[in-house]
Specification:
This protein folds into 2 domains: 46 residues, no CATH class; 43 residues. Helix content is 87%, strand content 0%. It is built from 4 helices and no strands. The longest helix is centred in the last third of the chain and has 46 residues. The model has no long low-confidence stretch (mean pLDDT 87).
């Protein structure tokens, strides 16, 4: 029996029994599972490799986030170093180090 058949039977049973709580819960559960299965199928994640694919995608996303974080950190470090170098050059010019070297 397919999920669609089970859902159709539950709908028929709910119509006859006038909304028994157990039948309604089973109806909602079957409809949810059927909807989730359809969504996974549309995304192409309904085969045996789906779990491995999702694990690989999560690892790839994690690596991308780490690389992005490292790139920002390196950029900020270079910016700070450049500012400190300019500050040192400015201090040296103010103190007249250029004239002392001549």
């Amino acid at each position: 029996m397919t999920r669609e058949d089970m859902l159709a039977r539950l709908v028929a049973q709910a119509a006859v029994e006038r909304g028994d709580i157990v039948t309604l819960r089973a109806l909602v559960e079957e409809a949810s599972e059927l909807g989730a299965a359809r969504a996974l199928e549309r995304l192409g994640l309904d085969d045996a490799r789906a779990r491995a694919d999702m694990t690989e995608l999560r690892e790839l996303l994690s690596a991308w986030r780490d690389a992005k974080k490292s790139a920002w950190k390196a950029a900020i470090e270079w910016l700070v170093r450049g500012c400190l170098a300019l500050l040192l050059v400015g201090i040296a010019l103010r103190l007249g180090v250029g004239e002392m070297l001549r």
